[in-house]
From TrEMBL:
Belongs to the TRAP transporter small permease family. It is found in: Cell inner membrane. This is TRAP transporter small permease protein. It comes from Paraburkholderia bryophila. GO terms for cellular component: plasma membrane. It is a multi-pass membrane protein.
Length: 159
């Protein structure tokens, strides 16, 4: 399991840092925007597109982090009533579904990123495809974390 656990540990900590910094920057941006708008009557126009990118980072990386921790939405009330083998099979099915979702997100967002890379985000001037690159990275993390959890199910079963 070390072959996947160690790289995923590094990836997990990197995502925690990026998501945490993004949340802090988003909070500061919102405070700055509110103060500028209501105190100085001078609303900065760059805050909204930056905030949107930060929200995408926080949501997508947060989702990946919860997959690693096993904190995603599940039907625990149903699964706990199953016999032990059924619980393992339900967890395996859940992780396979998450991997399938990650693959769909990866290819869908990769196609959107390629399609919109020539367009520019107004005010910022960044390629529009940047919005879709964030879920591409997150989907890879979701797939790796789900694979780790899936492998852990069967390593526990055989030990």
């Amino acid at each position: 399991m070390r072959f996947i656990k160690r790289p995923n540990d590094f990836l997990f900590h990197a995502l925690v840092i990026v998501a945490s910094v993004s949340l802090a920057v988003l909070s500061l941006l919102v405070i700055y925007s509110v103060v500028m708008r209501y105190v100085f009557d001078d609303a900065p126009d760059f805050v909204e597109p930056i905030a949107l990118l930060l929200v995408i980072v926080i949501a997508m990386f947060g989702a990946a982090l919860k997959v690693r921790e096993g904190g995603h939405i599940g039907l625990d009330s149903l699964v706990t009533k199953l016999p032990p083998k059924g619980q393992v099979m339900a967890a395996a099915f859940q992780h396979l579904c998450l991997i399938a979702l990650a693959v769909a997100i990866f290819f869908g967002c990769l196609q959107m990123a390629e399609t919109t890379m020539e367009d520019r985000i107004p005010i910022l001037g960044l390629p529009e495809g940047v919005r879709y690159c964030i879920p591409v990275v997150a989907s890879v993390c979701i797939a790796l974390f789900s694979l780790e959890n899936l492998l852990a199910l069967f390593v526990k079963k055989h030990n």
